[in-house]
Amino acid sequence: MDPSRKRAIRLTVALSAALLLASALIYTSFTAGNPELTASQLLKHAQPGQSYILAGTVLSGIQHDGTALLFRVRDPKLRLSVPVRYTGIVPDPFAAGRGVLVTVHEQGSTFIGEPNSLTTKCPSKYQAAAAT
Q1: Digit-coded pLDDT (tens) for 90-129
Q2: Which of 17, 33, 62, 82 maximizes the CB count within 10 A of its CB?
Q3: For residues 77 and 38, is the Cβ–Cβ distance under 8 A?
């Protein structure tokens, strides 16, 4: 067989394999994550045994029940809120009025936060800079 033909075949096979692997990586990265839902979306779509990432604002009235933290997360647009029971590391900036993300699953009328899944959003990154 001609050496230039061999090189062309090898190049074609290598590029096909690279394209296949890249497609698999892209597919996996887009299907692996949980959807981020607000409180109203969570109330509509929650299914027992399924985990969701709840996004919203913490309401005042945060309570401690032993090692568990009890709080409500509000949907910023519709003013609906859901109760969350969370056990795990609590970020320092966690407070009422702060935007949070927490991975939850439904248990009765309360959503149970997965341990160590609570993160807070930094408001300074999402607000316009003050004019000087």
Answers
A1: 888 889 989 999 999 888 888 999 998 999 987 665 555 5
A2: 82
A3: yes
